[in-house]
Write a structure and sequence with these properties.
alpha/beta; globular; 7 helices
């Protein structure tokens, strides 16, 4: 992935999330909790002048963006949609196969990561520190691209994270080191609307 910073936020809660179901390509709306979560994110996200607000084409992501940033121009990116879980969609998360396996009738991990990384690389080539609003699966694809594994805790709804290379450690010709940080923590240390000086921030993963 291009060594450029961006902010990622998962969409607000849906009824499928609340029931612990595999959502995938099911185009479900936010529930009442999800709508409240998205509105609550407005205070943090609205304080920054985003170069681009890139949004998955799924309804739940678009609703989140519209509620969190009602005045922003949104850029729909179809390749940021959730993974196609095939025959597993709508079933309990306990029946989900390993991320690296291909679900019956669904999308392979390699294909999923490939399209997500391609979409992000295109955005990062065009925009400085964009905001990306998408899905937990997209977050796992990002984690895989940075650290070589999709496994780990599921990212919470509407909890923006800064994804940034550690520029001070970057060596030409070598892959960048990346670290993740809650965006709220970074925003508190920055003046609203001013691009972050990433080299001055201490990151933890």
């Amino acid at each position: 992935m291009r060594p450029e910073p961006f902010v990622f936020m998962r969409h607000g809660q849906t009824a499928a999330n609340a029931c612990g179901l595999i959502c995938g390509r099911l185009d479900v709306p936010l529930d009442a909790t999800g709508r409240a979560q998205a509105r609550a994110a407005q205070g943090l996200l609205g304080a920054t002048r985003w170069s681009c607000v890139a949004v998955s084409s799924a309804l739940r992501a678009r609703q989140t963006a519209q509620l969190a940033l009602p005045e922003a121009a949104l850029t729909p990116v179809h390749d940021l949609r959730e993974r196609d879980w095939g025959e597993l969609e709508g079933l309990p998360l306990a029946q989900q196969c390993d991320y690296l396996d291909t679900p019956p009738g669904g999308e392979s991990w390699a294909d999923f990561v490939g399209r997500v990384q391609g979409a992000l690389d295109s955005l990062l080539a065009q925009f400085e520190q964009p905001l990306v609003i998408a899905h937990s699966g997209v977050w796992r694809a990002i984690h895989f691209a940075l650290y070589g594994t999709p496994h780990g805790p599921r990212i919470g709804n509407t909890l923006p994270m800064l994804v940034a290379p550690v520029r001070a450690q970057a060596v030409p010709g070598q892959a960048a080191d990346w670290q993740l940080l809650p965006y709220e923590r970074v925003a508190r240390a920055s003046r609203p609307g001013i691009p972050l000086e990433l080299d001055a921030v201490s990151y933890t993963h």
